[in-house]
Specification:
Elements lengths: L2 H15 L5 H10 L6 H11 L1 E6 L2 E6 L5 H11 E6 L4 E5 L4 H10 L5 E6 L3 E6 L5 H13 L5
Antiparallel strand pairs: 1-2, 3-4, 4-6, 5-6
Helix pairs in contact: 4-5, 4-6
């Protein structure tokens, strides 16, 4: 079993058996189990596993989404994007009606350094790159998100 798979299995076990309200808690638990990773790696693992931050009766906590794997969510998000347009400074996505906020949330949670942030309406997402020279890289990320749906 690869170290990534082992680590992600530990994360799933921890989230299934404990109430975790912030990433620092899970980083400390993993460290006590001999797994030392950065917050960025944990965020990528959360995205892969479909971990979401939820408001429960016990307060905010991280939980596994009902689909269990973020890759399944990624496929759905890719299907929700209809068009991509850009200029020298920003990128605009058109989505299915009512899906822009979900798409923007997913893009934000990808934690790509090239993406400064998103703004979502009903069927439009504005993506602001960290710098204009990264427009091409962000377009690659988005096109990979869409094309993964046609290769599976």
């Amino acid at each position: 079993m690869t170290s990534k798979l082992t680590r992600q299995n530990k994360i799933k076990r921890i989230l299934s058996t404990r109430i975790i309200s912030n990433q620092e808690q899970i980083l400390n638990i993993l460290k006590n189990e001999g797994v030392s990773i950065t917050q960025a790696t944990l965020s990528r693992d959360f995205a892969d596993l479909g971990v979401i931050r939820s408001f429960t009766s016990l307060g905010v906590q991280y939980i596994l989404s009902s689909t269990d794997y973020g890759k399944e969510i990624s496929k759905l998000v890719g299907l929700e994007i209809l068009t991509i347009a850009h200029n020298e400074n920003s990128i605009v996505l058109r989505t299915l009606a009512g899906r822009a906020q979900g798409v923007a949330h997913f893009i934000d949670r990808m934690n790509k350094k090239e993406i400064l942030g998103t703004i979502a309406g009903d069927d439009t997402v504005l993506i602001i790159p960290d710098k204009a020279s990264n427009i091409k890289k962000v377009l690659e990320i988005l096109n990979n998100l869409i094309s993964n749906n046609y290769n599976k």
